[in-house]
Design a protein that fits this description.
The protein is of the alpha+beta class. The protein has one domain: Glutaredoxin (3-Layer(aba) Sandwich), CATH 3.40.30.10. The protein is built from seven helices and eleven strands. Strands 1, 4, 7, 8, 9, 10 and 11 form a seven-stranded mixed beta sheet that branches. Strands 2-3 form a two-stranded antiparallel ribbon. Strand 10 and strand 11 form a beta hairpin. Helix 1 crosses helix 7, helix 3 packs across helix 4 and helix 4 runs parallel beside helix 5.
Length: about 260
């Protein structure tokens, strides 16, 4: 018997993947929105950081040094805070070895917190422990704390530092020689200080040092935050808690600004 004829199955025609143009348009729109959101985020991050920095420094009630001269309505000359940033005035002060230190030359390329104070200033002494703690944490190759004391002798400066940082050390009554003050300081703070100290002797009967006076300072403490280019970025009148989060944010904003 002959085999029944075989029937061949018809092959289904092959078709490529067809995408609805509307899907393409929708997907492209979503992608564009995603890119837009990413770009907005990248734009917002530095701006948000800048706002945080500005808010942090403003939270410390910043102002400008009283170096700018103006004229009152009656025509008399006035001195008012300068707008920031501004170039830091240069000066020369004495270090502990009696050598003249040119401020801008010595600290060029570093961020500096410049703190004006005095041994006779009680508020300065209450500020010093926080300044010490902050300097211990942040001071390094890129950042230095420099304190300029309106005093006539290093003995007064050393004893004031000991009084501020070592409440457990009993200081002698009355006047002491520099050698005695240096011995007391060496025993109380054998590791030294995490900040630099410069001497700014007053002129005549004035209590404020000559350098501080040239900055328009009438009372201490006052501090200037100076960037690597020698520009004052923030200025602080009266004491601050330098170890607080807001102070750390303000300081780090300039330290981290390459």
């Amino acid at each position: 018997m002959a085999d029944a004829p075989k029937t061949q199955a018809k092959e289904a025609p092959t078709r490529g993947i067809v995408i609805d143009p509307r899907v393409l348009l929708a997907g492209g729109g979503v992608a564009l929105i995603g890119l837009g959101v990413l770009a907005f985020f990248l734009w917002m991050v530095p701006n948000a950081a800048a706002r945080e920095v500005k808010a942090a420094c403003a939270g410390l009630r910043t102002t400008g040094p009283a170096l700018c001269k103006g004229t009152a309505p009656d025509g008399r000359p006035t001195v008012k805070p300068c707008p920031l940033p501004m170039a830091a005035p240069n000066f020369t002060a004495l270090d502990h070895a009696g050598k003249q230190v040119n401020f801008l030359d010595r600290y060029r390329g570093k961020v500096v917190l410049l703190n004006f104070w005095a041994s006779w200033c009680g508020v300065c002494k209450t500020e010093k422990p926080k300044l010490y703690q902050m300097a211990q944490e942040l001071a390094g190759d890129d950042f230095v704390v420099v304190t300029v004391s309106s005093d006539r002798s290093w003995g007064d400066v050393l004893l004031a530092i000991v009084e501020s940082l070592r409440k457990d050390v009993k200081l002698p009554d009355g006047e002491v020689s520099f050698d005695v003050a240096r011995e007391i300081y060496g025993r109380a703070l054998p590791a030294g200080l995490p900040f630099d100290v410069l001497l700014d002797p007053p002129d005549g009967d004035n209590n404020i040092g000559q350098i501080a006076s040239s900055w328009g300072i009438k009372a201490v403490p006052e501090s200037a935050l100076i960037d690597r280019d020698g520009m004052i970025r923030a200025y602080f009148v009266n004491k601050r808690d330098w170890n607080s989060p807001v102070a750390q944010t303000c300081l780090r904003s300039v330290i981290d600004d390459e």
